[in-house]
Amino acid sequence: MRRSYAFGLLVMSVILLGVDGIMFHLHPNMQKCLKEELQVDVFVSGEYEVSDAPGQKVDYVVRDSKGHILSQKEDVSKGKFSFVTETYDTFEICFMSRVPPTHRGVAQEVSLITKRGIEAKNYEGLGEAAKLKPMEVELKRLEDLSEAIVQDFAMMRKREEEMRDTNESTNSRVLYFSIFSMCCLLGLATWQVLYLRRFFKAKKLIE
């Protein structure tokens, strides 16, 4: 039973709390952004590395959909960043290449690894600071993982309720629109019949 429970937590952690790694080429004087939706109060950490190119500089910035800057640095080559989300929003990480007009630029290779939630926490440092045993650190990690899974399920249920309410509202609006359209068609058909009747009477085609 305990093995199956631990296996279930492991599967859910892979599904919900994964680690994202990506590598791409940043062309001269271009910008490339990566976006992701995150929940409230999620700890995010990242590690990046940019290949060296003489005479070229690369800047990075992390911001939300409203333009609030969470992390920013110019002329980077290798480093880390971290932030905590305050609202449910879409966050983006952008890398910008800067090349002087007199310099012939080349594409630079950028590698980025981001972690969020439980995976972003340093449990080894936490265990050393609190003087916890390895088993206690692992139990703490599993406790946080269980709490994160419960929160994710609660958020999924909330989204499902919102989607259901939206579907019901849309169905009722479609029904009312259909009734309104039928009334308009019936009114238009009645008006056409009366108009044609008056027209034929005026032409003395019918009595």
**What is the assembly state of the chains in this entry?**
single chain
CATH class designation of the domain at 19-121: Mainly Beta
Strand content: 25-35%
**Main sheet: strands, sense, barrel:** 4 strands, antiparallel
| Series of H and E elements | HEEEEEEEEHH
- Could you tell me the radius of gyration in angstroms? 30 Å
Distance between the termini: 91 Å
Membrane topology: Single-pass type I membrane protein
Organism: Cloeon dipterum
Keywords: Developmental protein, Membrane, Signal, Transmembrane, Transmembrane helix
Pfam families: EMP24_GP25L
Tell me what you see in this structure.
Residues 1-17 have low confidence and may be disordered. The longest helix has 69 residues, at 134-202. The chain has three helices and eight strands. The protein has 207 residues and is of the alpha+beta class. Strands 1-8-3-6 form a four-stranded antiparallel β-sheet, with no helix packed on it. Strands 2-7-4-5 form a four-stranded antiparallel β-sheet, with no helix packed on it. The protein has a domain at 19-121: Jelly Rolls, CATH 2.60.120. The protein has helices at residues 2-16, 123-130, 134-202; strands at 19-26, 31-38, 43-50, 57-64, 69-73, 78-84, 89-98, 108-116. It is a single-pass type I membrane protein. InterPro entries: Emp24-like (IPR015720), GOLD_dom (IPR009038). Keywords: Developmental protein, Membrane, Signal, Transmembrane, Transmembrane helix. Residues 1-21 form the signal peptide. One of its GO terms (cellular component) is membrane.
Question: What structural keywords apply?
Answer:
alpha+beta; Jelly Rolls; four-stranded antiparallel beta sheet; disordered N terminus; elongated
